[in-house]
Amino acid sequence: MKIxxxxxxxxxxxxxxxxxxEVLRTLVNATIQEKKLPDGEKFFRAISEREKIVSTGxxxxxxxxxxxxxxxxxxxxxxxxxxxxxxxxxxDRAPVRLIFLIGGPDDKQTEYLQILSSLTMVLRDEGxxxxxxxxSNKEEVFDLFQAL
Length: 148
Hints:
alpha/beta; 5 helices; 6 strands; 42% helix
């Protein structure tokens, strides 16, 4: 499984938001619009509730908010790249600039864990993170994941 199989160029966004809630709302709304997702508000609530339990800021300037709903058939990854870091209560307390919003069906736990694991592994590469933050358009971001 390759992480690029779950990333759609239409779901890559460059953001100017300044708070975690604004970022989450913007990414969820953009995803709903692009993917025509059912239960968009339910998805946002699930993402928000997950954040209340424990921050999805994994460190290194990266956050991976995620939620699963029974109304979704397939997994997707929405990518958000912030121009300035946002406080995400990350494990390392560093501001977050790269967000990978994952959504999908609630009955495919193995695939879900594989996506999380694959994404976490590729994002350990400092060069990749730096290149993602310096990208100027969706095509560059998409190409970086295709090259993995």
